[in-house]
């Protein structure tokens, strides 16, 4: 299977800029502002770790169009200031390379988890595993999440 058949999709810039400007998160709260110590603060927009001394936001995010039983929400990090959006390409985002393990989950066209698609993979196997999940007709997209905390990292789609 070719990895060129997928693309990594970060949070949309319009949503990120609104949150960076103080718009409420999925809990209806303003994002919290903190200063990074440089240890493991992955921005879901640029897919880079927030550098030590830089400001970042912690907020609750729901990567689904509407609430429903499978529409998980959870904490994510963003740069507090504008950063460029990671392009929608098949190349593994930089922040993935410095992590040990990810949880991939497939979702159908109704934004519901498709049971049996959940898998834990190291970065070196992530593209291949995502391609395999997306090869199924009942899968619309895949979430890449932290294997340790289940935090949403990005969406993976067919290219």
In short, what is this structure?
InterPro entries: DUF1203. The protein is α+β, with helices and mostly antiparallel strands and 159 residues long. It is built from three helices and eight strands; from the N terminus they run E-H-E-E-E-H-E-E-H-E-E.
Report on this structure.
This protein is α+β, with helices and mostly antiparallel strands and 159 residues long. The protein has two domains: 3-9 and 88-158, no CATH class; 13-79, no CATH class. 15% of the residues lie in helices and 27% in strands. The protein has three helices and eight strands; from the N terminus they run βαβββαββαββ. It has a five-stranded antiparallel β-sheet with strand order 1-8-7-5-6, with helices on one face. A three-stranded antiparallel β-sheet has the order 2-3-4, with no helix packed on it. It is globular and about 40 Å long. The two termini are 13 Å apart. The mean pLDDT is 96. InterPro entries: DUF1203.
Helix content: 10-25%
In total, the number of domains comes to 2
Instruction: Please state the oligomeric state of the protein chains shown.
Output: single chain
Q: What class do helices, strands and sheet pairing give?
A: alpha+beta
Number of strands: 8
Strand content: 25-35%
Shape: globular
Radius of gyration: 15 Å
